[in-house]
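Q: Please design a sequence for this.
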């Protein structure tokens, strides 16, 4: 039986806006990066002052903060690590995520009381390695994505109970083992192991015969396409019970480079699913609306990764793009006296049907019957970026601040 008190929904936070989304929609913990030593350089990340603010905001909600320092730093970067880890400690972060053994030794030297999590980049696939990292001072291991549920259960059974096990349960997957890829570095001089991946696994490829340099031949996996390296996204929301039974403590959502909307929707879905599981672990059954939520963000086709054995259906050969069926059109500021007051995000108009998503609640469909701008004038469309507007809603209807209005 899973220890329900140790189950955690862990959400990504690429910047302050995405952090706020994770907090509003129910994360138990967030992971984020500073300006150095993190595996995602594309998001804005957090400087020293922002990190202090992020930790304070999170702790006010009872949410833990884990800071990434899981790149493979070179000689000229190591000299900056003491300053970095001192900033993290001063900010009050709850843990750091490390990969490199040298970095691990420096954390123990400069921040001996800091909780240490071992990154999925370390490629932990057996109980001996997990146990040894525990002996080296790790409180948690983030297991390699290439493990089945049975293998995870064995690792859980053969490691100290005090060691937390964290696994990715949702988001983009890498075609390379635990993210150890040189393709981006080789093709465009952007090192994936230093947070700069250009995702060339998502590109289309052709063959060229050496004596016919102006002729290109598609690389066909089947008759539909050439995207032979392109992995589907992972989605395990229907299997929370199986993951918990295998001994996973922390359910990690990928996506520090994804939008605040993505963080809101996916965090909300897994928070709701986790709460449903905790209420009745022996009869886990999700309502359809929770299952549907993960399809309302930009995503590739979904699969279940390696959890149920070899992922024979986890490559997607048709194209390298996303499926996107919904746009965020507004974020709600408040509701009172039969009116919704909100800030526009994308254009929408009178006559449109929209959907309101609030934390932990089934989305509500609304018909836009009137739009009123900030000057009290009726308008046909909310068509100015971030414009303030109001619209009538049914008597007695109300939505909390930060609820999201979206349109299919």
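A: Design:
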């Amino acid at each position: 039986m899973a220890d329900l008190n140790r189950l955690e929904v862990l959400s990504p936070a690429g910047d302050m806006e995405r952090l706020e989304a994770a907090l509003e929609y129910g994360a138990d913990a967030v992971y984020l990066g500073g300006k150095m030593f993190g595996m995602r350089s594309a998001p804005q990340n957090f400087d020293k002052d922002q990190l202090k603010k992020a930790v304070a905001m999170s702790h006010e909600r009872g949410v833990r903060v884990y800071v990434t320092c899981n790149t493979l730093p070179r000689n000229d970067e190591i000299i900056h690590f003491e300053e970095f880890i001192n900033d993290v400690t001063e900010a009050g972060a709850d843990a750091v995520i490390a990969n490199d053994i040298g970095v691990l030794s420096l954390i123990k030297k400069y921040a001996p009381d800091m909780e240490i999590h071992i990154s999925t980049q370390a490629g932990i696939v057996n109980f001996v390695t997990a146990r040894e990292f525990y002996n080296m001072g790790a409180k948690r291991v983030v297991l390699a994505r290439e493990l089945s549920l049975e293998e995870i259960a064995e690792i859980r059974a053969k490691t100290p109970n005090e060691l937390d096990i964290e696994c990715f349960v949702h988001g983009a997957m890498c075609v390379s083992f635990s993210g150890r890829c040189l393709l981006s570095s080789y093709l465009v001089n952007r090192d994936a192991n230093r947070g700069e991946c250009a995702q060339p696994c998502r590109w289309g490829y052709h063959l060229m015969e050496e004596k016919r340099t102006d002729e290109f031949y598609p690389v066909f996996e089947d008759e539909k396409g050439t995207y032979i390296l392109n992995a589907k996204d992972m989605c395990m929301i229907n299997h929370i019970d199986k993951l918990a039974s295998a001994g996973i403590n922390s359910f990690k959502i990928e996506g520090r480079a994804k939008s605040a909307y993505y963080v809101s929707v996916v965090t909300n879905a897994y928070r709701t699913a986790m709460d449903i599981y905790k209420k009745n672990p022996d009869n886990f059954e999700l309502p359809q609306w929770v299952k549907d939520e993960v399809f309302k963000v930009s995503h590739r086709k979904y699969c279940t990764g390696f959890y149920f054995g070899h992922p024979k259906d986890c490559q997607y050969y048709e194209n390298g793009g996303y499926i996107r069926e919904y746009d965020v059109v507004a974020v709600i500021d408040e509701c009172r006296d039969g009116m919704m007051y909100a800030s526009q995000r994308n254009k929408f108009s009178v006559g449109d049907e929209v959907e309101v998503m609030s934390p932990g609640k089934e989305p509500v469909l609304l018909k836009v019957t009137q739009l009123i701008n900030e000057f009290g004038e009726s308008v046909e469309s909310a068509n100015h970026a971030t414009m303030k507007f109001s619209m009538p809603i049914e008597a007695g209807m109300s939505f909390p601040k930060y609820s999201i209005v979206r349109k299919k």
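Q: Thanks. Anything notable?
A: Residues 222-226 have pLDDT under 50 and may be disordered. The first strand starts at residue 8 and ends at 12.
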